Amino acid sequence: MRRQFPKAKGPFYEIKAAARAEGKPTATDVWIYDVIGDDWYDPSLTAKELCQTIAAIDTPEIVLHLSTPGGSVSDGLAIYNALVSHPAKVTSRVEGWTASMGTILALAGEDVAMYDNALFMVHWPAMVCIGNATELREQAEWLDRVGGIMAGIYMQRCTKTEEELAAALGAETYLSAAEAQEWGFVTEIVAGQAAAACDFGVLQALGFNPDPHYRGREPLAIGRTISAENEGKLRTARDQLDEVLSTLEGRASDPAPSASGDAPRTMTPKGLASLRLASRRH
């Protein structure tokens, strides 16, 4: 009996229409950041709803954002066909670990951008089955046919030979952005931007205690991919915080007026920040 999948708590995708910069066409963003289609372990949805939603998109461009381990071959192929047959220009963006059917979906884009800290994994399809020898041979033959379909899609872009591609699929190969571009799967490499190193002394003053394992060492800069727009927002927030701290420092440098019977008291900026964050947070 075919396993009955539980009803999903939510879809494995998200769709948002967004206006671009002045002079650029409006685009619809499609985010696939989860397992594609049926999932044996978590509540999931099939591609039916997503394909119907893609068909209803009326913007001149679709931007497909991908960070997925892959999933159902049948659902993935249906989504791939819905994208390549759509009249809008499809641009794919590989934004994280994108594997298996996720890489097939990436190739639905006329242009494929990939962050330099992401991964592009290709392999032959796999399945779990139970049966006698005849039934297992039938399933193996079916896997060969499905693998041939996937290889055909890869070869539309691949710069390597069919033999080299087959070897990479058999070895379950993880390609970096540069390697994926060399293989013809990626047309553009996007540079991931690293966050600036953090002064642990400031964190401690604000009430946060870094891991003792890092004490006495240089602060670590943890790389994370952010858009230019979000980077601008972070810089604006930083400037506003600097302005607030500068004001607090100016006030703290002046002795507070003393009341009768009280000793003059002052508080450093770090002390003020610590006191502020020690209050109840919402």
Describe this structure in words.
- This protein has two domains: 178 residues, Alpha-Beta Complex (2-enoyl-CoA Hydratase, Chain A, domain 1); 71 residues, no CATH class.
- Strand 3, helix 2 and strand 4 form a beta-alpha-beta unit.
- The chain is built from nine helices and nine strands.
- The protein has a six-stranded mixed β-sheet with strand order 1-2-3-4-6-9. Strands 5-7-8 form a three-stranded mixed β-sheet.
- Helices cover 38% and strands 15% of the residues.
- The radius of gyration is 26 Å and the shape is elongated.
- It is an alpha/beta fold.
- Helix 1 runs parallel beside helix 2.
Give helix % range.
25-40%
The CATH architecture term of the largest domain is: Alpha-Beta Complex
Instruction: Give the helix/strand class.
Output: alpha/beta
Task: Name the CATH superfamily assignment of the largest domain.
Answer: 2-enoyl-CoA Hydratase, Chain A, domain 1
Q: What is the general shape?
A: elongated
Low-confidence stretches: 1-8, 212-225, 275-282
Strand order of the largest sheet: 1-2-3-4-6-9
> Which fold name is given in CATH as the topology of the largest domain?
2-enoyl-CoA Hydratase, Chain A, domain 1
In this structure, how is the largest beta sheet organized?
6 strands, mixed
* Spatial extent as radius of gyration: 26 Å
Element order, helices and strands?
EEHEHEEHEEHHEHEHHH
Number of domains: 2
Strand content: 5-15%
How many separate helices? 9
Q: Which CATH class of the largest domain?
A: Alpha Beta
Number of strands: 9
Gap between N and C termini: 50 Å
- How confident is the prediction overall: mean pLDDT? 78
